[in-house]
Design brief:
There is one protein chain. This protein has seven helices and five strands. By secondary structure, the protein is α+β, with helices and mostly antiparallel strands. It has one domain. The chain has a five-stranded antiparallel sheet. Helix 1 packs antiparallel against helix 2. The longest helix has 14 residues. It is elongated and about 55 Å long.
């Protein structure tokens, strides 16, 4: 199972993003988050209104960067933050330790991050992956994981904050999306188990561009 680790010291912006996202989802002013995200530029047109709940789309077959290795889902090509978040969660929660090493899995997930380095928090993504020692033990046990019933939605706190100050969203076009799903784990000898999972993601969706992941927030919001 994923093992939480603290964010690295060089991820100062990532920590600010996550803190800002948490404040935002608590219904604080969206402008406060936007000010911390200054430097991302302004767009001329607002983003399209995303669907509140979407199932995970099939992974894209084209690469957004270098080959992440076998068994790692490619970044989805979509302008919907909920679709993108659902697809990323499916990639994060689906793996086969028998065929994939930990570093290749991490590298594959990093392909989902935005290319705008001031927003991309790779440490928050890596913190959701079992560390190399645990991954090795999972490999020895032949552990694999799949996911179903993936759903994604914009939390009410985020919607309310955007409604209060719609213009603030256009500074970075970062959406808060909460994703839920049921993870099924199997291991050698016919063992199986399952559990519900949930994450809140910061997803960047600029107009006329595919979405990309900014960070994984430490708190899940309804």
């Amino acid at each position: 199972m994923p093992k939480s680790r603290s964010l690295s010291g060089n991820s100062v912006f990532g920590r600010r993003l996550l803190i800002g996202l948490g404040v935002l989802l608590a219904a604080a002013l969206l402008a406060g988050l936007a000010a911390r995200l200054a430097g991302g530029g302004h767009a001329d047109h607002p983003a399209a209104s995303p669907t509140a709940t979407q199932p995970a789309p099939a992974p894209s077959t084209s690469s957004a960067g270098s080959d992440p290795g076998p068994g790692v889902a490619r970044p989805a090509h979509t302008s919907s933050p909920t679709d993108y978040a659902a697809a990323f969660a499916q990639a994060l929660w689906s793996y086969d330790t028998r065929a994939l090493d930990q570093q290749n899995f991490v590298n594959g997930l990093r392909q989902w991050l935005t290319s705008e380095s001031q927003y991309a928090d790779a440490a928050s993504v890596e913190a959701q992956v079992p560390d190399p020692v645990l991954w090795s033990r999972m490999h020895d046990n032949g552990q694999s994981s799949g996911v179903h019933d993936v759903q994604a939605h914009l939390p009410d706190g985020f919607r309310q904050a955007v409604a209060q100050d719609p213009g603030a969203l256009t500074r970075a076009y970062i959406y808060a999306v909460t994703v839920t799903g049921t993870v099924d784990v199997a291991w050698s000898g016919g063992g199986r188990g399952g559990e519900s999972r949930a994450l809140t993601l910061a997803v960047q969706c600029r107009p006329q561009q595919d979405c990309a992941l900014a960070a994984i927030a430490p708190t899940v919001y309804p």
